[in-house]
Amino acid sequence: MLAPGELEAKLAPNPKALTAKRWAMVVDMRKLDEQTAEKCIEACHRIHNVPDFEDPIDPKDKVDPAEKVRWEVKWIWKEKYEHAFPGQAEVAIPEKIHKLNFLLLCNHCDNPPCVRVCPTKATWKRDDGVVMMDQHRCIGCRYCMAACPYGARSFNWRNPRPFIKSEDESYPTREIGVVEKCTLCAERLAKGQLPACVEASKGALTVGDLNDAKSKVRELLRNNFTIRRKTQLGSNPQVYYIV
Amino acid sequence: MFEKALVGTKRYFGVLGFLLLLSGIGFFIYLRQLDFGLGITGMSRDVSWGFYIAQFTYLVGVAASAVMVVLPLYLHNYKAFGRIAILGEFLAVSAVSMCLLFIIVDLGKPSRLFNVLLHPTPNSVLFWDMIVLNGYLFLNIVCGWTVLQAERNEVPPPNWLKPFIYIAIPWAPSIHTVTAFLYAGLPGRGYWLTAIMAPRFLSSAFAAGPALLVLLCLLVRKYTKFDPGREQIQTLAKIVTYAILINVFFFFCEVFTVFYSQIPDHMLHFQYLFAGLEGKGKLVPLMWVSIVGMTITAILLIIPSVRKNETTLAVACAAVVVTTWIDKGMGLITGGFVPNPFEGVTEYFPTMPEALITLGVWAIGFLILTMLYKIAVSIKEEIRA
Prior knowledge:
The complex is a heterodimer of chains A (243) and B (385). Chain A has 243 residues and is α+β, with helices and mostly antiparallel strands. Chain A has one domain (19-242): Alpha-Beta Plaits (2-Layer Sandwich), CATH 3.30.70.20. Helices cover 26% and strands 15% of the residues of chain A. Chain A has helices at residues 6-10, 34-47, 65-71, 81-84, 95-99, 113-117, 143-147, 186-189, 196-200, 216-223, and strands spanning 23-28, 76-80, 101-105, 123-125, 131-133, 154-155, 179-180, 205-209, 226-227, 239-242. In chain A, a hairpin with a 5-residue loop joins strand 4 and strand 5. The radius of gyration of chain A is 18 Å and the shape is globular. The mean pLDDT of chain A is 93. Chain B has 385 residues and is mainly alpha-helical. Chain B has two domains: 1-184 and 351-385, no CATH class; 190-197 and 230-349, no CATH class. Chain B has helices at 10-36, 51-64, 67-75, 85-106, 115-118, 125-152, 161-184, 197-223, 230-261, 264-274, 284-302, 304-308, 310-337, 352-384. The model of chain B has no long low-confidence stretch (mean pLDDT 95).
């Protein structure tokens, strides 16, 4: 008989896996046009089987607009400046910034409030900084959703499967009653692939090692002024925006 | 003693039958929720806790308030409360039972409930809430039942019970403090991020619980041969008066800090609740009824003649129960989630299935309460006979 975890412990990591001491992302808003942002969202939601309540497989399952708002599941999405950075809407900001659609996703905080509150360790921070989510341990108490200051978490208020038109069988679909969110494509990093949004972003999105002074993200942070969302809350978000 | 709950008048069984019917309806709709998901409620990605968690929060307060009877009795030897201590303890038992049920009906995956024990996580306040609530349920069952049994046998309560009685006293405020800490430590929710949350919870609890107990005492006197006593009711009335005054004071302390500082993260939630935001304000009338009603009731209760007349006292106590319920059971949770982290407004209101499941849980709680009170009252009647 195998002891719990024995099999997993024998698995060697893929030598091609992308690793870091501390993952971080830089979003270069100068390079992120509307179409590219859409492509990033589409790539992420397609490979992670995120349901689209506007587009059921069977037209009979159509939901009304209010239900669509209530049940929405999103891992990465667009938001205007004043909603992405509430309380920082300066009067004299350039017009083009007000028009920008910022790409928002889980910030993979260094001090994540969601991890602090989870009563089952269904969400936890890996040593490399990725905030993970185990949808098979989650009891659906939604404490993490109350704790996240960035609205990065979604709950399965109903069965999402009738709303996933092209299912990607390499990634699990979810059941009702669990929370989900972006995991920085942990499953892709392990195979040596960049996160799907980064790959689709034509260079607007960059991930890399914050602890490595020679990494691409450090180079971007060194040469550009960046902002982060709600830094005053002490969660230390790790998605940086060049505006 | 339990056999006392199994015999009774037609009216007693009529009440049980009615409560059983309501809980049956709730259970039936809960099965539908298990099948479809929490999407049958009004909750959303933005307002991810709703009516269930709000009822849970309110009832933790009702449960904690048993200490307002037990503390004067055991720490100050205020003997008059010996007569009604059991009513306070059994009210706590039924209230905590409802709390636990409300947590369960709110879970997305209730089948995985025991993951909380399989993977204990002390950094989560929810973990501690589980411990204090279950501990409090245990303490009140043990203390209430044992004292009642001793009373029936006309002997003093056994000595081994004393530590449990004394532990139960600080345990009571702890359950509501921990429940306040569920909310008061979340960095992004300005409405809840306030150190006065736990004191406010306790003051509203110590008003609402004893007010409910006054009403229950009056009912017990009317429908049974056991009189909880005029002095007892009058002392409870004073407790209600001071607690509701402190609660109103705490509310205005919060209002001052929020509006004098003018920090939007804190102000916007109050604005949503009391004036509406972006033209949306479903809760505005209710919130005004709550705070104006609560303040007027508090002032009226100061007047001795209002307290001493049991009819006006009953009306005032009912007003305390209702206004604190609106504050916690409607405003507290929704107000924390609106506006959302993007300063957008997604409103929340419970749906019909959600309301019926809630009613079902309340019915189970009152079923437990009715049976426990029947036992207690029968024993009291038996001793007097």
